[in-house]
C-alpha cells in the first residue's frame, strides 16, 4: 500500500492543541487497524530543542536515540505507544544545515541554491525518508504518517514548509494526502455567540498559500452550534460532514472518542481512500480509551504531590512528569493533585525578601503526600530543592528525585548526615571541597547542543531486595532515557554508602550511579535517568507508580505484586513502561467535570494545585 499522509495545521492563534489533535487522529486511525507514524515540523532555526529554555518552548522531550525534541513528540509517543527518532522532528535549522552541507560537497553541480526548489525539495525528501521508518516494533513501513506543522498559518518562518507541503500534495497524488486544519471558534463575551470570521480568514490565508483543507477541526469552549457549522461549511468550502468540533472536555483522553463520535475517521479515510478492508468498513476500536477516559473522570480520592522546581510558572516545562504522575495515579485509582512549589521560595533568603511566598511554599510542601524534584540546569533554586529533599528524608515523606533531583538528594545527605557542610556539585561550586557531583569526563564545556549523555542507557540493579528493582518486576536491568552532563562522583560513593545511602542501580561499568535509595525510609528514591519519558497511559512508569502508591498508603500492597504494576482491585498483570532488559551477565559483582480551558495538556487549575 502506498504511504498515506495526514497533515495537521493550525490557524488564528497558537496553543490550540494541534499536538493533541494530531495524536488523537493517530490513535483513531490505529483503532481502525492501521499502523501509524508521526512527524513534527518546527519552523524555528534551532537544530533541535536541546538548548532552548523551558520558558521558551516547554519541556525538551528526549527520544530513544538521544534526540532532543519538541514536547509534542512526547504526546505522540504516549498516545500511540511508539518510539520515534530525532529525524521525526524536522526544524528549519536541520533542513538548512542539510542543504548547506550538500552545497559544500558540490551536490547541486554549481546551481544557485534557493528556497525553491532546494529547501522545499529537502523538506519533501525528508518526510518521505522518515515516514517509512517503523516505529511500533514491527517490520515494514507504517500505513499512515501524521504530520503536524508547528506555528500558525501566516507566520513568515513557516512559509517554506507550507510551500513544500503544497508541492508534496501533488507529488504523492490524490487519495494519499489529507489536510486537517485546526482553528478557533471564539465566543465574545459582549455578543455571546460563536464567531466564524477568524476561521474564515485562516482558511482564506491557507488557500492563498496553495493548500486547501479537507477537514476543519474547530476548537471551542462549548459544542459547535449547527448553524455555525453550516456557515463554516459554506464560507470555507468544506463539506459539513468534514467539520469536526473539538470542544473542551474533562480530560484529553476523551479527544479520540470525540473524533470517533463525529465520524472524523470516516472523513479522513474517505480522503485517503482507506474506507474498507476488503468489503468491511473500518471502524475504530477504542474500548481502552473509553475505559481510561471514564475511569479518570470518576476518580474521587485525592493524592497530593508537591512538584518542587524552578520552572513552575509554566506547567509545560514539566509536561512529561505531569503525565507520568497522571498515569500512575489512575493506575492506583487516585485523583491527582499537583501542588506547584517554586524551589526559590523555599530558600532562607525568600523568608526575608518574599515572606508570604516563602510561607505558602512551605505550607504546600508540608501538606503534600509525596515530594517530586524533577530535573533542571543552573544554580537558581537549587538550595530550595536541597531543602525539599531534606524535609522528605527527615520526615519520612515519599520522595522521588529525577536527574538533578537525585543529585541534590546526594548533596543534602552528604551535608546533613555526613556533616560535609561544603558538599556540593561542581556545576554550582567548581571549588567545592567535597564534590559530590562532578562533570562527566566525556562531556564538552564548549559545545552546549547535543553534548550531554543522551538517550536510552541500561541500568543494572545490584540485587533484587531494593524497592526500585521490585517496582520494575524484579528485573536485573532496565533501559531508560538520560539527559545530563553531571553525575555522582564515584570516589565519594563508598563514604556515602557507609553513612546509609544505597546505590542500588549502576551502569555497565559500575562507576556511574543511576539509582539511589535510603533503605530505612518508606520511599526515598533518586534516579539519574528520566523515567517520565517512557510512561504511557496504560503502562505507567514504575518509579512514578511507587511514589503515588507511597503517597496514598498503598506501597506495601503494590510491592507484594510479583510484577509491580497492577490495579489494586484486579488480577495482577505485568505491564511496564520502560524496556526491561533481558537477563545478561553483569560486568561487575553485584549482589464529567468542569470544562478545560485548554486541550494542550488536559489539566485545569484549582487554587495552586492542578487537579484531574
Could you outline the blueprint of secondary structure elements for this entry?
Blueprint lengths: L3 E7 L7 H14 L4 E7 L11 H4 L3 E2 L5 E2 L2 H9 L8 E3 H14 L9 H17 L12 E6 L9 H14 L4 E8 L12 H12 L6 E6 L5 H11 L6 E5 L7 H7 L2 H8 L4 E2 L2 E2 L5 H12 L3 E8 L9 H13 L3 E8 H4 L1 H6 L1 H12 L3 E4 L8 H13 L4 E4 L1 H13 L6 E3 L8 E6 L13 E9 L5 H5 L5 E8 L1 E3 L4 H6 L3 E5 L6 E5 L6 E4 L14 H10 L3 H6 L18 E2 L23 E3 L2 E3 L1
Helix pairs in contact: 1-3, 1-9, 4-5, 5-6, 12-20, 16-17
Brief summary:
The chain is α/β, with parallel strands linked by helices and 612 residues long. 34% of the residues lie in helices and 20% in strands.
Keywords summarizing the entry:
612 residues; alpha/beta; twelve-stranded mixed sheet; seven-stranded parallel sheet; disordered C terminus
What does this entry look like structurally?
This protein has 21 helices and 26 strands. The strands form 5 sheets. Strands 24-19-18-21-22-23-15-14-12-13-26-25 form a 12-stranded mixed beta sheet, sandwiched between helices. The protein has a 7-stranded parallel beta sheet with strand order 5-2-6-1-7-8-9, sandwiched between helices. Helix 1 (18-31) packs across helix 9 and helix 12 crosses helix 20 (542-551). The relative contact order is 0.11.
Amino acid at each position: 500500500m502506498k504511504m498515506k499522509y495526514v497533515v495537521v495545521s493550525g490557524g488564528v492563534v497558537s496553543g490550540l492543541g494541534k499536538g493533541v489533535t494530531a495524536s488523537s487522529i493517530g490513535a483513531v486511525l490505529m483503532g481502525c487497524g492501521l499502523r501509524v507514524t508521526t512527524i513534527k515540523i518546527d519552523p524555528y532555526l534551532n537544530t533541535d530543542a536541546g538548548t532552548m529554555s523551558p520558558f521558551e518552548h516547554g519541556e525538551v522531550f528526549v527520544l530513544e536515540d538521544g534526540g532532543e525534541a519538541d514536547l509534542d513528540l512526547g504526546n505522540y509517543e504516549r498516545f500511540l505507544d511508539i518510539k520515534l527518532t530525532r529525524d521525526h522532528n524536522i526544524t528549519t535549522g536541520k533542513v538548512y544545515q542539510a542543504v548547506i552541507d550538500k552545497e559544500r560537497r558540490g551536490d547541486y553541480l554549481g546551481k544557485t541554491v534557493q528556497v525553491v526548489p532546494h529547501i522545499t525539495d529537502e523538506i519533501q525528501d525528508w518526510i518521505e525518508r522518515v515516514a517509512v521508518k517503523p516505529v511500533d516494533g514491527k517490520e515494514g513501513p507504517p500505513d499512515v504518517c501524521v504530520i503536524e506543522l508547528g506555528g500558525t498559518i501566516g507566520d513568515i518562518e513557516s512559509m517554506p514548509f507550507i510551500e513544500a507541503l503544497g508541492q508534496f500534495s501533488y507529488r504523492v497524488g490524490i487519495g494519499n494526502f489529507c489536510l486537517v486544519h485546526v482553528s478557533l471558534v471564539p465566543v465574545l463575551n459582549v455578543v455571546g455567540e460563536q464567531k466564524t470570521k477568524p476561521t474564515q480568514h485562516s482558511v482564506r490565508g491557507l488557500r492563498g498559500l496553495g493548500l486547501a483543507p479537507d477537514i476543519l477541526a474547530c476548537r471551542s469552549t462549548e459544542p459547535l452550534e449547527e448553524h455555525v457549522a453550516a456557515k463554516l461549511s459554506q464560507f470555507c468550502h468544506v463539506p459539513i460532514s468534514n467539520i469536526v468540533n473539538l470542544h473542551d472536555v474533562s480530560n484529553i483522553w476523551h479527544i479520540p472518542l470525540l473524533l470517533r463520535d463525529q465520524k472524523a475517521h470516516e472523513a479522513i479515510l474517505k480522503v485517503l481512500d482507506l474506507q474498507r478492508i476488503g468489503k468491511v468498513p473500518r471502524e475504530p476500536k477504542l474500548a481502552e480509551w473509553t475505559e481510561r477516559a471514564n475511569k479518570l473522570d470518576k476518580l474521587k480520592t485525592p493524592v497530593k504531590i508537591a512538584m518542587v522546581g524552578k520552572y513552575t510558572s509554566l506547567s509545560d516545562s514539566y509536561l512529561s512528569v505531569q503525565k507520568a504522575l497522571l498515569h500512575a495515579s489512575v493506575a492506583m485509582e487516585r485523583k491527582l493533585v499537583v501542588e506547584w512549589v517554586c524551589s526559590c521560595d523555599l530558600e532562607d533568603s525568600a523568608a526575608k525578601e518574599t515572606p508570604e511566598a516563602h510561607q505558602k511554599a512551605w505550607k504546600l510542601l508540608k501538606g503534600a503526600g509525596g515530594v517530586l524534584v524533577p530535573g533542571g540546569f543552573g544554580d537558581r533554586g537549587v538550595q530550595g530543592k536541597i531543602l525539599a529533599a531534606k524535609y522528605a528524608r527527615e520526615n519520612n515523606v515519599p520522595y522521588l528525585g529525577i536527574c538533578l533531583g537525585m543529585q541534590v538528594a546526594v548533596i543534602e545527605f552528604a551535608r546533613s548526615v555526613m556533616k560535609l557542610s561544603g558538599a556540593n556539585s561542581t556545576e554550582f561550586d567548581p571549588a567545592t571541597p567535597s564534590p559530590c557531583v562532578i562533570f562527566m569526563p566525556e562531556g564538552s564545556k564548549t559545545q552546549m547542543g547535543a553534548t550531554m549523555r543522551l538517550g536510552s542507557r541500561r541500568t543494572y540493579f545490584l540485587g533484587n531486595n531494593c524497592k526500585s528493582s521490585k517496582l520494575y518486576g524484579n528485573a536485573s536491568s532496565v533501559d531508560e532515557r538520560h539527559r545530563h552532563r553531571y553525575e555522582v562522583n564515584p570516589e565519594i560513593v563508598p563514604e556515602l554508602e557507609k553513612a546509609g545511602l544505597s546505590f542500588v542501580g549502576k551502569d555497565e561499568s559500575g562507576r556511574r550511579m543511576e539509582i539511589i535509595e535510603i533503605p530505612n525510609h518508606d520511599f526515598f528514591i533518586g534516579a539519574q535517568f528520566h523515567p517520565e519519558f517512557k510512561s504511557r497511559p496504560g503502562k505507567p512508569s514504575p518509579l512514578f507508580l511507587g511514589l503515588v502508591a507511597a503517597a496514598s498508603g498503598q506501597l506495601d500492597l503494590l510491592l507484594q505484586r510479583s510484577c509491580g504494576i497492577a490495579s489494586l482491585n484486579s488480577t495482577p498483570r505485568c505491564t511496564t513502561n520502560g524496556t526491561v532488559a533481558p537477563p545478561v551477565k553483569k560486568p561487575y559483582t553485584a549482589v464529567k467535570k468542569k470544562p478545560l480551558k485548554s486541550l494542550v495538556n488536559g489539566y485545569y487549575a484549582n487554587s495552586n494545585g492542578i487537579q484531574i
